[in-house]
Amino acid sequence: MTDLLQKMRGDAAPLPAPHPVKNILLAGLGGFIAIAVLAGLADSLETVLIMGSFGASCVLVFGFPDAPFSQPRNVVAGHCISTLTGLVFLMFFGPVWWSVALAVCVAIMLMMASRTVHPPAGSNPVIVFLLQPGWDYLVFPTFTGALLLVLVALLYNNLSRSASYPKYW
């Protein structure tokens, strides 16, 4: 028990270095532009293109675009795998507590096995269980919104930084 408590105290490592103000401003602007594009298109097309988890995706693709979790395949496939998993568990087992927990569990494992881990997508099964949408939720907003988010990230990150985005497909 004392070993567990000792581990919970942490390693006393120093905080990460602060981010340069320019990077902070560019990341915030990128998130604004991406969500504005999705919201504006959704409004004009009268369809749903935004999920709550897309806000967290913006943190990664604009704040940490070089991270493996931020690469396009991770964003699109991670969101689709997790939403599909949530829909399958909802449809087959219903909106019960153990089903949503199992859906999150399976979504994590599938993303890890397919090398498409995108942490914000881990919330998609929970979102599915809260909204209880139909199968079309996989296309609108999940796939279409994630794809548009990546397209904005491709343009914005390559215009605003000297490094290229993505690191891999």
UniProtKB/TrEMBL annotation:
Arranged from A to Z, the UniProt key words for this protein are: Membrane, Transmembrane, Transmembrane helix
From which domain of life does this come?
Bacteria
Q: Has keyword Transport? A: no
Q: Name one Pfam family in it.
A: TM_HPP
Q: Where is each HPP transmembrane region domain found? A: 18-166
Q: What is this protein called?
A: HPP family protein
- Asked if the keyword Transcription regulation belongs to this entry, the reply reads no
User: Which chain regions cross the lipid bilayer?
Assistant: 24-41, 48-64, 76-93, 100-117, 137-159
* Database matches in InterPro entries: HPP, TM_HPP
Write down the species. Amphritea balenae
